[in-house]
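Okay, is this right?
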Amino acid sequence: MPSRAPLAPAHVATKLAALGERLRARRKALKVSAVDAAEAAGMSRVTLARIERGEPSVTMGAYIGAATAVGLELELVDPRERQRGAGGARGKPLFPARIRLA
């Protein structure tokens, strides 16, 4: 019997669920079936369904593939940059960014 994936922390699970919802909404807005989107992303319909549910055990590469298939792009954002733009104080990152991703 395969082992179960470890549970994701609540803040991670929330973000993955939101990402999955966004991908599903985009796919539906484009009127693309799950089968066609999965085929375009090079994955099974079941894997796409798991992504759209925000399951943490799916690889990051699959999430990126699903996003690309529906014309979206994933980007890493330094929360401190967002803070400066919004003028508000947010939670401190666990590890300070040492490399700026452009």
